[in-house]
Amino acid sequence: MRAQAAVESRLQFRATSLDNRNDIVRNNIVSFSSTSGSPLRSPVGHSLAIYRSGRQFCWIGLIGMQVVIMLTASLFAADKLVDKILLPHDPSPKGVYRWSGMALLNLDEKQHLLLLATAYGQGGHDHTESRILEFHSRDGGLTWTPLAEAKVFQENIGKQNVSSPSLLRLQNGDILFFFTVKNPPTLTDSGAWMRRSTDNGLSWSEPEKLPYENYGGVAQDRAMQHSSGRVILPCWLSKDRLGSTHAYSFYSDDNGRTWKKSPLITTPAGSTGRKTDPAAEEPTVIELKDGRLMMFLRCYLKSIYVSYSSDRGESWSEPTSSGVPSPGSMATIKRLPDGNMLLIWNFAPVEYIEGPFPRTQLTAAVSTDDGKNFTHLRALDGNTDFSDRSKVPKTTMASVEFSGDRVIIVYSKSFSRKNAYNLRLQVVPVDWFVEGAAEPAYGESYLPILNGKLADK
Fold this sequence. Notes:
The protein is mostly beta strands. Helices cover 4% and strands 43% of the residues. It starts with a helix and ends with a helix.
């Protein structure tokens, strides 16, 4: 089976013309070749062929005198449907200098999507004035409200700004909107607020402050509801102006009417390339198949750190390395329609990671073992040359939603070291994410290798 997987991962179709897909079908047998251009051989050295049945194809190999059907697969790879700048950086005095902090929600379980995007004024710093704008798509993410027609969804009720929207459809049908409000003095007062809709987003309640303290908040696209009905909002805070950071969760058993908080957790000390030490920031949470919660944490220890809760967010285990290499940047994790996990983050080989950089590549990977390991790595966007120390482009902060068999992804990308972020959109068939190679795997199986590399530093 390993040999078969190795062969399968190296396959590619080669054809001189794709104008007519039947050009590469001859008498129901399709030629197959390796990436080197030579005829593909089975693990035991016999030629392979493809038998056509409609649009499905079977890999057939000859072993001795027996015919072995190895796999059924689609002939043509899943292509991205959309990959473009949706909202551009605008350096003009009244333009949106920075687009970052987005959330998506499918409003009808079909093709009507709501996008909330934070629009920052000139300078684009974390404390620059901002508002959250509203956009709609009614064709599964292919087209959206033009910027000139966008409405302000959330005015700036902070004395500095508002940011980091999260949207959550509750089991009772209500929608909760969470966001972060920042107030001066800088790095002292920032945290989560909430609004509610009981009519599928047609109207919203007035903003309510959650019982936060100090400086922190909720990152974008983070709220979730446990299968038991408990609402979980992962947050982070700093008590010492980013000298250190800690993660925790708000949780509610009455659909967000009242809230309790878990104790704080943080990672071990030893941050690189950042003054914040220890650090546990921008947590994201997903429910495991056994009912536990898994939290991924941004830190500056050259990998994503992970914590678990066995009591639905009331307490969290001491964070440890997940074995997934990462700079200190935000990761996003979601359940795919087939039940596997999709992880989107800034992958980089550990030897190139220093503090929050590089963020030059936005990468997707899939876990088929409930978050233990991630495989099928595919570069969504960015520079694949990790030795490029220019730290550009900065490609980061993804939000994800689903429409049928499509994955809709919005994220921020800047071609300078400043926060001059465009908002980029990709609409990708679900199958695209599992077309990457099954190896390498990052996670528990990679942890000994990761620890060895860190020990050698």
